[in-house]
Design goal:
Blueprint (H helix, E strand, L loop, with lengths): L6 H17 L2 H10 L4 H9 L18 H14 L1 H21 L2 H12 L5 E4 L15 E5 L2 E12 L6 E7 L10 E7 L5 E6 L9 E12 L3 E2 L5 H37 L1 E2 L2 E2 L4 H29 L5 H26 L10 H8 L9 H10 L6
Parallel strand pairs: 1-4
Antiparallel strand pairs: 2-3, 3-7, 4-5, 5-8, 6-7, 9-10
Bound molecules: flavin-adenine dinucleotide (FAD).
């Protein structure tokens, strides 16, 4: 096992950093956040430089790269702007990984090249108003009608649905005793008649944000089905594992950005005639954050290695998701405290990390649910 970056990964990181330093500086990020606008220019630049195709096979225009390579890309993107990293991750997870693993040859040929070029972007719609942590209790249904399906119901908290071209949507296709059965996954064009989208105002994640999506008699062809009918839950679970690696990589990049900004501030902010970074209590906060960052970064690479070697278990993903979510939240909170009043002020970037990081212990499965999963593998019964 290798705990460092390969020379190729180091080069990848440097190239992405050089590009994003130019197209995604802090003042651009602040503007996207304030004006509720997606970082379209930065996303387009990444696509134009080929950074949307890493994991796709060469025949679909990709570079056949590993999950570890992708983690390096997403960490660097998340360092510049977490929401840009999350936008990119949706293309990789839903437009590449899920389709390459479960799609027909026709679906792969239709979706993957257009994902790699940045023409198609994605959302993932699992959560509903009455099924969050208990995601398999979803009720939005797709009923067969000749060669088509008709969809009715509502999805809640669907990030970026309003700016996506397609969404991977989990739907109930039959009623079975076990709720995990009878769920199917569909790739749905987000602009179909009968789809209504409402943006939900949130504490953070302002640039792309999240939405409520209502389906009223939405007709989709059978070819929109991804994988086998009624067998979608295992696709959701597998895709969520990949999602958690990507989310973690982007978020630990964002945590590193908050840390470095604050370190610089602490070296320059003078109080009582000294830099605040010379006070031991502040130094200890940095030491605690450094331990968290190093641990989290190592865990991201470890988990990517497990994925690349087909060794990842459900509990490994839960450990990663829990550790990164709590570390990012804690680091952002500590950074805000170190900046004092300026940390609380909207003119400084740390408040954005504080707001955005709050989602890291909720979205994609809460910290409590991750702990349930971890404990469940230890032979403890609830
Ligand atoms: C900004 C944002 C973006 C999101 N983006 C997406 C998206 O793109 N796609 C998507 O499908 N979903 C998305 N989600 C949904 C997200 O995954 C859910 O919010 C999350 O899974 C929790 O569900 P819930 O909010 O319904 O909370 P609930 O499930 O109602 O949980 C409420 C509280 O109870 C706790 N709890 C629940 N069950 C248990 C249990 N068994 N043991 C212990 N504690 C428990 C939870 O940990 C939590 O603290 C997003 C959410 C937000 C806020």
């Amino acid at each position: 096992m290798n705990f460092g970056l390969t020379p190729e990964q180091q080069t990848l990181k440097e190239h992405v950093k050089a590009l994003l330093d130019k197209v995604c500086p802090l003042d651009y990020v602040a503007r996207c956040d304030e004006q509720l606008t997606p970082p379209r220019e930065a996303f387009k630049a990444l696509a134009e430089h080929g950074w949307l195709g890493m994991i796709a096979p060469e025949e679909y225009g990709g570079a056949n790269a590993s999950a570890a390579d992708l983690a390096v890309l997403l960490e660097e993107t998340g360092y510049h702007f977490e929401e840009l990293g999350l936008w990119l991750f949706r293309s990789y997870t839903f437009g590449c990984y899920a389709i390459l693993k479960n799609g027909t040859e026709e679906q792969k040929r239709f979706f993957v090249p257009k994902t790699v070029s940045g023409e198609f972007t994605y959302a993932f719609a699992l959560t509903e108003p009455d099924s969050g942590s208990d995601a398999a209790a979803l009720r939005t249904r797709a009923e067969a009608d000749g060669d088509d399906f008709i969809i009715n119901g509502r999805k809640q908290f669907i990030s970026g649905f309003d700016i996506a071209d397609y969404a991977l949507v989990a739907l109930r296709t039959s009623q079975q005793e076990k709720k995990q059965k009878g769920i199917s996954t569909f790739l749905i064009n987000t602009k179909l008649p009968g789809i209504e989208v409402r943006r939900i105002p949130t504490l953070g994640q302002h640039a792309i944000g999240t939405t409520e999506v209502t389906f009223t008699n939405v007709r989709v062809p059978r070819s929109a089905l991804l994988g086998e009918l009624d067998m979608g839950w295992s696709i959701c679970e597998d895709t969520l594992r990949y999602e958690r690696l990507c989310l973690s990589a982007a978020r630990i990049g964002a945590a590193r950005c908050a840390f470095e900004f604050t370190l610089d501030y602490a070296k320059n902010r003078l109080q009582f005639g000294k830099p605040i970074g010379s006070f031991q209590v502040i130094q200890h906060k940095f030491a605690d954050m450094k331990v968290m960052l190093d641990t989290a970064q190592t865990m991201v690479l470890r988990y990517a290695w497990l994925m690349d070697n087909n060794k990842s278990e459900r509990a490994d993903t839960a450990v990663l998701k829990y550790l990164i979510g709590e570390s990012y939240k804690s680091i952002s909170d500590t950074c805000l405290q170190i900046l004092g009043g300026y940390g609380y002020c909207m003119e400084y970037p740390i408040q954005r990390f504080f707001r955005d990081s709050r989602l890291a212990t909720i979205g994609g499965g809460t910290s409590e649910i991750q702990k349930n999963i971890i404990a469940g593998t230890l032979g403890l019964k609830g």
